[in-house]
Amino acid sequence: AVFGTHQYMMIGSYVRDIYICVKAGFEAPRSTQDVDFSALVVAEETFLEHLEAVGRKSGPKEGNRITCRVLNGTDVDILPFGTSSVGTLFRHREAEWDVTGHEEAYRFSEIVELSADPQISVRIPTIDCMLGLKIIAWDMRQQEGNYKDAQDFFYLLNAGVVIEVKGNELWEQYQNLLEQAEYDAEKAAALLIGIKLREHFTGMALDRVLNILKDTEQRRYFFTVADGRGVSKPLVENAFSQFEFFYEGLIYDRKE
Question: How far apart are CA 211 and CA 209, in angstroms?
Answer without folding.
Answer: 5
